[in-house]
Amino acid sequence: MQPGTYQHISEKKRKRQKSFAVLIDPDKVQPAALGRLTDLVNEASVDYLLVGGSLVISSHLDECILAIKAQTDIPVILFPGSPSQISKHADALLYLSLISGRNPELLIGQHVISAPFVRKSGLDIMSTGYMVIDGGAPTTVSYISNASPIPYDKNEIALCTALAGEMLGMKLIYMDAGSGAKRPIPEAMIAAVAEQITVPLIVGGGIQDPEKAYRNCRAGADIVVVGNAIEKDPALIKEMSAAVHAAAHAEV
To answer: Could you tell me where the DSSP H helices lie in 70-150?
Structure first.
């Protein structure tokens, strides 16, 4: 296990460096088939691997993470959709609180249930204000959460929500349009949030090409997450990673 994942993220933000994360859904990949993917992420200098999903109906979360860890030193961060998606074999956990919705179970209820297991896991626990943004199509996360997403053109709502999350003590803010979003989060909304918060900002959902990944970073995202596009075309990993890291150099 790699200690200090959050410290690593914070230090990169302090240095104005951008990071690229690949999201791996255990429901969509078999552990035995992870070799090609880990080769690609290693070659592309991917910064983080997020593992999880809204459902995770398969039973091989631990097996999947162990297979990844055997083939790469890239930090593995859990992106759980439920309290059951905890594995001590990962490096860190996004402890998500759905601050954009009004479902008490996803604000604090599930955290009460999972707290003893999370504490014993030994993971680097990163409290994360999770904000779902309207991506132009129903997504699994909006269905499961039973919460309306923030309208894509309401920058002020996103800004105030992110500020509230930071002032409540969240270590990270994660803006997500959801897997399979038809419309990615607008750069204007990303910029509005990034200009006002001090904690690292993660952005994901609907990012289909390197140009959009680059623009998101230029708008203020510290970490760009891509999953669905890479599932369709794994070769995009190298181009996406290069675009994200190029955005950091452009800021210098």
So the answer is: 104, 110-121, 140-145
